[in-house]
Amino acid sequence: MGMIGRVRSQTADASKFVVDWMEHRTGIVTLTEHFLYEPVPKRGAWLYTLGSATLFLITLQFLTGILLLFYYVPSIEDAWNSVYYIQEEAYFGALIRGIHYWSANFLLAVIGLHMAQVFFSGGYKAPRELNWVVGVILLLLVIVLAFTGYLLRWDQDGFWASVVGMKIGSYTPFVGGATIHFLLGGDVVGPATLSRFFALHVWLLPAALAPFIGIHLYLLRRHGVFGSEFEYTERLAKLHENQRLEEYARYELDEGEEEYEDGENGYGDDYGDRGDYEDRRS
Amino acid sequence: MAELQKDPITRSDFIGFTVFGGLIGAALTIPPIAFLLHPVIDVDVLGETDVDQEYQEVGPISEVPADEPVVFNVDFPIRQIYGDEEIQDLSGQGEGSGTTLTNAVWLSWRTETDEDGHAGESFRPEWLDETTEGLTPEQISEAEENLNILSNSCAHLGCPVRWVLIEGEGEFLCPCHGGIYDINGGYVAGPPPRDMYRYVDYEVRENGRLYIRHEYDAGSEYPENGPQQPYVV
Ligand code: HEM
Ligand code: FES
Fold it and tell me: What distances in angstroms separate CA A185 from CA A147, B6, B37, B78, B180, one per listed residue?
């Protein structure tokens, strides 16, 4: 056996040993297989990537957000300057911040498309209702994240957009005033406002987002994506069964034909009226 | 359900659990909630404000011409989270360098307008052309009666309104959704539900300058929300 061959077989043995060792102690291999492989329907397969695209963009937000935190200073004196520093001086700062900004924008669009796909394919129906509910919670969290992030730049754009947003909130019946004073941290925009938005954007909302993403994925795996192969097989089997029964029933009816003579058009006696009604409308 | 209930709970157990659970629950939830809601309690329950209640100088009223409003930036000292004045003084952040809230205040002279907001005669006092200081009490009250002291925060959703000239005629225009007001701050067109907010606590002093406090005519629409209306300026 040559040198190369020996190294190759030793490496293979070693990695097999490591993988077996990990599998034995953590079950990681089975888990990975379980999480990676999932039957999805052939038809419209690309539309099923919208959820993954959402997850990808949220991951980007977390990664770039954490990077931004190394330079961002959450105080009214320094916030704008630190964003300026990120943008103009930090190496690749414009890229990191740009990704955080554009990914936030695309995130909202992609979430909308993802929801539309679930809606139009009927993927929210039993037994997946709860995952729709969790999805709506995720949507609301992301909207509030986008809202709170915008003030952090502390420039004219972000400032006034937030003022308008808060004023819209202030028209909420009964709790409008309290909501607005909660966000402001007082009764006017000031240092407390920025601190609160920062705490919400960087700690509270991401921390709330993470477990709901976990629940969303868990429920997804529990029921499979809507329209997945086995579901189709099951449904097709049911459909065929129904067709067979209908056929059978029709065959049985043939023998007592007389009873059904005047029901032939399927609409019964009212059909004439319906036609009239439609004429009148046009 | 019934099968799950292995140990029957007695009445005194139940009361014990409720009282004990209630106490622990209160100890775990009240402090963080009160901590977060501190500003809401201060503002909505105790009616406090972050804004210093001293009069702040706006500027000399003689600078405001008859047919056009003029904007002045007014800094109101506020006490929000970096609040303690003594600490600020000790750390060299004395008066004038603390945190402020800047309001852009539009001043104009009361002007006759028709329903479409076209301006007519102005009530700018004529003596202002010669006398800019050392006003008599009569002059002061005439000036106070005829000044419009307007917040630039749009009565719709709070964007900053500005004065624009369109075909030779001026109007306050809001950049956000196109709300329009006349020179007196009166509503002309667009989504705002009312006239511009006016500062209601003001005085013209002998030196010919205007001083205001941070307080608006909230209108009777939302009386429950305290004196600092609109919410955000
Ligand atoms: C779904 C998740 C998120 C969304 C939709 C979002 C959205 C935004 C938006 C719209 C901005 C304003 C960006 C700009 O205009 O420059 C922003 C800024 C910021 N975000 Fe996020 N964000 C998310 C998650 C996070 C996370 C997880 C962190 C940190 C742990 C973070 C940290 C920051 C920081 C430090 C800024 C200020 C810097 C800047 O304005 O560029 N974000 N975010
Ligand atoms: S905020 Fe001025 S018109 Fe909407």
Answer: 16, 50, 8, 12, 31
In B, minimum Cα distance to A200 occurs at: B36
CATH topology of domain B56-225: Rieske Iron-sulfur Protein (2.102.10)
Q: What is the residue extent of each domain of chain B?
A: 10-48, 56-225
Closest to B66 in 3D by CA, of B104, B115, B121: B121
B81: which chain A residues are within 8 Å (Cβ-Cβ)? 185, 190-192, 195
* Burial degree of B27 (CB within 10 A; 0-12, 13-18, 19+): exposed
Give the atom of ligand 2 at the shortest distance from the alpha carbon of B158.
1
Q: Each residue of B135-184: pLDDT tens digit?
A: 999 999 999 999 999 999 998 888 899 999 988 889 999 999 999 999 99
Quick: pLDDT tens for B64-79: 999 899 999 999 988 8
B100: nearest CA partner in chain A: A190
Domain chopping of chain A, boundaries: 44-226, 228-282
CATH number of A44-226: 1.20.810.10
Whole-model pTM: value is 0.80
Task: Give which of A198, A262, A84 is closest to B81, Cα–Cα.
Answer: A198
What is this model's ipTM?
0.80
